[in-house]
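Fold this sequence, please.
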Amino acid sequence: MSKQDDGIPTGRIRRTAKVGSVVGASGARYAGTRARNLARSKEAAAAELDKRALESAERMVETLGSMKGAAMKIGQLASFIDTEFLPDEYRELFQDKLASLRSSAPPMPWKTVRSVLDQEWDEPVESLFEDFEQEAAAAASIGQVHRATLPDGRRVAVKVQYPKVADALRADVQNAGMFLRFAKAIAPGLDARAAARELRERLLEELDYEFEAQSHRTFARGYRGHPFIFVPDVITRLSRQRVLVTEWVDGMGFEHVKRLPQRERDRFGEIVFRFCFGSMYHLQHFNADVHPGNYLLMEDGRVAFLDFGMTKQLDDEQIELEIAAIEAVLNDHAEGLRQALADLGFFRNPKRVDAERLMEQVRAVGGWYMEDREVTIDSERVMRAIAAASDPRSEFFQLMRRENLPANEMMGRRMETGLLAVLGQLRATRNWNRIAREWWFGEEPATELGRQEWAFFESKGERRRLRT
């Protein structure tokens, strides 16, 4: 086995220590640099801090990238959300460096890839493909992707799981349980055991590419022929537990999309919103891993969505309760909101919760899609929403201490936060509320994309839910 693979620490203590050492060492260097800057000129001090910021970001990328698994996902998430602990002038330095975690990681050598393929397939690569590129086209948290061509000429993407990553991910899941127990200090109502179990189930599902293929097929069928959303088909006969083969998609990556004119970024943002939120109502199924490294803007204007390793299915009751809570906010009915969230499991004793204060918090978190006006998502709004939901320094801290995050709601909140962060990177503007009303209350399409989308779903026999 290669040195690179041996470098993936798989034990729980080793992985915790590795992340901790990066954070601790970076903090110590910053403290030392700031102390020395007292004796430097303003220009020299700024240059030295710039250097330290870059060094820390580079070290974080190197460490989290080499660890793969859930630890790398932490770095991917950090790359979309502004790091509030840094001064404004240094945030971009971290953003640029951490951005590389979105779509790349240290690759496996071909020898290792080949060993996985030989274990998963009964036939050699040469007999299954007309061509198979040995160099990885992309690498992510638990696997890497290779371009290949089938004998019939179809181009495909072959995702191959890293050896030993299963042990590493299981170690991360154990650590997640530990961190959730710490979170009880902030939110005593949190059912850490149930939350850890839900997180463990969703993360470990990612290890089984056959399970992912099943979810992927659901989305591919649901959006086949859609006017602006594209999900490539799975090549089922070649997919295995550690190998997933899908149609290859060409397109523009997220970093390039961010440099497009604002009008095009707004359109891209609306499509992502319609996919991430809309699938909950159209399919009762959504992708909880909102990672734009898996979004491609195709030449014909459609957006391709590529990864379905962490998805969540919803039942009718949960959807109806969610809509009841939203309707209470829209009607400024604080008591109705408190009852709806209690029914969803957010409170064990709702009478101890100040309903008016709860309304303020919900609007701070989700106001961007609950306000009936055009809203531009920027980094300030993203951080304000995240702080209102989870920051102990928030004005809503006392309310947080009475709240529980139901296990069944964890993935939805993860998706919502990730989506907000992606829209913030785009500075996307829309009346998100009017779009969402199409799903919540069956209102008329709010945009041209909405008219196209509903024509598509109605052609398949779906009808808008009408408010009763």
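The radius of gyration is 23 Å. DSSP finds 21 helices and twelve strands in the chain.
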